Request: fold
Amino acid sequence: MGLAIQGGRLIDPANSVDGKKDIFVSDDGFVVAVGKKPDDFEISRTIDATGKVVCPGLVDLRARMREPGLEYKATIESEARAAVTAGITTLCCPPDTDPVIDTPAMAQMIQHRAWRFELAFIHPLGALTRGLKGELLTDMEALDEAGCVGFTNALQPIKDTLVMRRAMEYAASFDLTVFLHSEDPWLHGNGCVHEGEVGTRLGLPGIPEAAETVGVARDLALIEQTGVQAHFCQLSSSRAADMVAEARSRGLLVTADVTAHHLHLTEHDIGFFNTQCHVLPPLRSSRDREALRQALKSGVASAVCSDHQPHEPDAKLAPFSDSAPGISGLETLLPLTLKLVEEKVLSLSDAIASITCQPADILGIDTGHLGIDATADICIFDPESWWSLSEEKIVSRGLNTPFLGWEFCGRVTHTLVGGQVVFESENGSKT
Amino acid sequence: MTKDLQFDSHGLLHHFLTIEGLGRQTLLQILDTAESFVSVGEREIKKVPLLRGKTVVNLFFESSTRTRTTFEIAAKRLSADVINIDTTVSAAIKGESLLDTIRNLEAMHTDLFVVRHSKSGAAYLVAQHVPPHVRIINAGDGSHAHPTQAMLDMFTIRRYKGSFENLKVAIVGDILHSRVARSQTHALTTLGVPEVRVIAPRTLLPTAVERLGVHPYTDMRAGLEGVDVIIMLRLQRERMRGARIPSEQEFFNLYGLTADKLRLANKDAIVMHPGPMNRGLEIDSSVADGPQSVILPQVTNGIAVRMAVMAIIMGGKAKQEKSEQSSIRRRA
Reply:
């Protein structure tokens, strides 16, 4: 007994599959066959995917659920629902909740709450230092046992270089991955935009490119010294991407991601103080955006993430520097990544890899592929369906996006998590 | 969210938020209208009825003496009812948001807000969220813009220099944090000044300053060579903490305007300062009070220019007024 998805174009980059292939899912939620139906497989439900793309469910390296602590912005339930609407089946949640994810109890609580809704899988990232204060290490091994897939200090800097060295050494002792938002806090200062043309024009305090390159340089030196498995989050500048490329060419095992919005927007999108474009790290120049696209193409950055940060409307109704940074990005992750295909930056298969198997590899978790026996986390989308983003279409509690009014090609019709259909669009195919 | 916010659907100036995006004709209209208002201040009865029955609220979230006073005088000379609201006595310090403050005042049927705020973009934010009949004048937002100051400076320059086409203008001091310098730069380049120089150490210059269409100098002596107008900016002492300048003495030695340095400029160069001045820090008293200084006329001109801006954006009968006041006076 099981589910058959028939007639679609199956794109499963991890298994180098791209072609018209049916896929068969067992009742207990695993892929049992690809291509030909096994003789003993009894179909209880069929999804007609004719004209659609069938791919692994999306893996988002960084999405804030705002729970616990900031439930007035969003909740695990609201954001998990938004995620599956957008084809995302696995999310990583950074530890900057309130309280911080720096104890096994917190890590377990978040997973328990997420399981209750039977929507997307939510994996916590543990805090690298207690309370993200950059002073004392957390019980990383216990947090790892409790389900944390990596460790990060999120956007809080670890100013003390010695603490960072110890954190990396300790993580390296247990083969844990550290996720770095490398930035020099002194150069960041009170900045809120890229230090460049737009910041100059608008009189907004800038964050220089050097804030990122100095941070990346320090962290690369420590990675090399400690041998830790490290991942650079949301590179924003051309030079930082070059530094990571150079380190990789020397054989250092570092990975990197970019956010979907940094691949499409530049400082100029701020226009006259559009607070929806207030993000950290800041949107930089068009040269930087081009370099980030190249970094993704060359594999220096192997994942695109949403860096989802839902906010209540008031958070953006303030003078630019007082507005809260961040974009509600879950529902534009797939559309913006597909736009890179439209703009001939990536092939469709490479684009899908950057939001499925490649982020899964960074996390070291067994998802993002559809081989035999894989968990049936599946996204089905119509690659020819045009739509434009409007507030009414947003499922997330956060309506804060600079992409309202953008035209996108490609719309999710079905999302399966563990073989269960958790999202099905109204005009999707019938059973 | 575009610069079009400044114009209504008929292409008329609706809010006055920044000089950026305004055309030469609009700027000249403001200057010409201001000329017509100069004489109002010289009459015994210093009032015209253009804004009679209108309510103007001066909403200052950042302290100011001269700007607020000249706005108040300007509005009163136009016969408007004027309310001054200072943050020190308002709800802003009790945690009420900027927009809530505006909404409350708007509920009292205000026609025009003159807004000053310490954060760049505050006036834009307000303009986006007021109903269509309410007008906003930006009286300074963070380091972004101070368009009426720039216009009164243009007015002063035109009065003394006649036109803009052959001038070299130097702006000296803390360019980085200066909303005045940004607005002046847009105004000067729009009005056709061929060479605008900015003079400051690199720590007080924005990174991409050349993109504003100006020539940066770190050597004040080289930068003053042959200029017709020198605009000194106020050095805010709190900037010292950010290690942007080593000491007041060093700054004065390198970038203070002294009689000695003034001699490098053209003989008939004028010296301007938006105030308030730090005597002995950015300008020597002998220059501030000297024959080339036009610092006090700037203040006087501020009233006529602010009357002009208010009259224009309130759709006032500025043109009729202008023909009534045919006596356009120009000195120099």
